[in-house]
């Protein structure tokens, strides 16, 4: 089992060539990071659909996983413009982001849609990166209540399988700074308890996303299982810095377990 999970979504920021160059740099960094190579850090990247196959090729042999940014709730059929989770699994994609705040806000994805997509991902062997988080800045307790409700609703009828829950307070996405550590810690601790108690979800983890970058993992320490990065991993050097912090955290966790 990984000790720390670090993911990056490129959203729709990069063009094809820039994404290819970035993936090649990530592959280099992954290959030079022993904790990625030995599986203590689970590293995944989520480029756009046309970039999935080149990304799989770029990171081959480095243990970096490739995630899609979304997937359909159906395996096949008359769903023009959708991408099947079965086809994603067939090409070697291992994970899929679901319920991201931008999909909920801009494309009207409801909890019911996210639940249907989560079930579809799991029945096709994909690990859902299930994005949850409150829309307005409220107390950590209220944030936990609404995020926990989103998790419960997404997995209520889904087949068994591991989850990566990404706690992303909507107000901290695309912001200059991440949510304060004192806020995040309450929510991620609560979500970790929740997922640990869910039947059939062994190995599930809770990561933080929303203006995350170098320095944050060291601050959050044992309060999270990792980070889900956006803009602040566009610079490969910043991702390398986060992986250095993730390595320190993985080492510390191993020390605790030894
Ligand atoms: O939404 C995010 C990752 O999915 C976070 O994006 P930013 O780090 O760019 O705010």
Can you put this structure into words, describing what you see?
It is built from 10 helices and 8 strands. With 258 residues, the chain is α/β, with parallel strands linked by helices. The protein has a single domain, classed as TIM Barrel (Alpha-Beta Barrel). An 8-stranded parallel β-barrel has the order 1-2-3-4-5-6-7-8, surrounded by 6 helices. Strand 3, helix 4 (85-91) and strand 4 (95-98) form a beta-alpha-beta unit. The longest helix has 22 residues, at 236-257. The chain is globular and about 50 Å long. The structure holds 1,3-dihydroxyacetonephosphate. 1,3-dihydroxyacetonephosphate binds next to strand 8.
What's this, in brief?
By secondary structure, the chain is α/β, with parallel strands linked by helices. Helix content is 44%, strand content 15%. 1,3-dihydroxyacetonephosphate binds at residues 9, 100, 168, 173-174, 209-212, 228-232.
Characteristic key phrases:
single chain, 258 residues, alpha/beta, TIM Barrel, eight-stranded parallel beta barrel, 44% helix, globular, cytoplasm
